[in-house]
Every structure is written in C-alpha cells, then in structure tokens.
C-alpha cells in the first residue's frame, strides 16, 4: 500500500493580510512545520502544492532543506505549482492529485497553515486505514467535528476532481458509510492559522 502526502500551500491568505505560510513559529515558517510532519511520518512521498507567491514559498522550503529542517526531503519531497491557485482550494487539491504517481493508493491531504499537526497523528490515521482497508477515507474527529489531515483513497479521486472553488472534501465525505472517523484529543488537527488573531494566539504558546 503506497500512501503519499499532499501539503496544500497555495492560498492567498486573504484574511491574514500577508502570506501566513511564511509566518515564523518556533523559528520555522508555518508551511515548513506541516511539511516536516509529513516527512517524519510513514508517508512514502510528499507533494507540496504552491500558488500565491510560489517562488517565495519554494525558497523557504529550499532554505529549510539546506538548514536540515526537512530530513529526507531530497528523496521524498516534490514541489509543484498550481497556476490556477486563484480558483480556490479545489484546484490546488487537484494539482496535488495529478502530481501523484499511478502506483499511489491514497493521499493524506494536509494544510500548510496547520503547524501543530504531528507525525504521530499522521501515523495514527495510516494505522486506522490498515485496520479498515475497505475505508474510502480516514478522518480525525475532535469533539464531534472532523479535522485535518484526511486520508483519501484512490476510489475517491474521480469525485475530488469534480470539486470547484474553495470546496473541500467535506461534502463528499458527509454521510458516506465507508468513511472511518478516528476520535482524537489532539488540538493540532483543528487549528489552522487563518487570521492575525489566530497567529497571535499560536505565537503566545512559544512562551509557555
């Protein structure tokens, strides 16, 4: 079973006012935290999808690789650009799926603005699929709500290709009997940094 990671790092950060992916938390850009978690997990490979300020985001990733913050990146990491990033999240997800090899059985979809997602959480979702190989998707469940990342298997890929705008997979997964929810207490699966207030709260944790 081959599972790849897709880190979505293409958004325009309209609510933030500046590129949130490049905001520094614990001495690393937010997007580097997300990529590092993917690389430190059992995922076979990782695709990062850039869009807005693609060159700057790619440069931050390259600097992290050179500085040793992204181990094994040279062999397992690929950065692709989505020229349709302004069309919304769906276009970036589809660009990531298109970059996967035909031998990939599923994709762990991760968001570049979720720096508290851990390799352990990714591994737990992968283990849940090993226990439920018939599942089309595996999602973390926090206080009754689905969070991220979400593992989506290849049978879902054609449906994901029909998404438009900023529509994610939530609607597609709703009500499906073949989606397995994994109850967790990890707040990192629910925390995405979309606003200056959210970033301020995150940075405050550096002092604790």
Automatic annotation (TrEMBL):
Residues 5-176 form the MobA-like NTP transferase domain. Gene3D superfamilies: Spore Coat Polysaccharide Biosynthesis Protein SpsA, Chain A. The keyword Ubl conjugation does not apply. One of its GO terms (molecular function) is nucleotidyltransferase activity. CDD domains: GT_2_like_f (cd04182). It comes from the Bacteria. Keywords: Magnesium. The keyword Magnesium applies. This is MobA-like NTP transferase domain-containing protein. It comes from Chelatococcus reniformis.
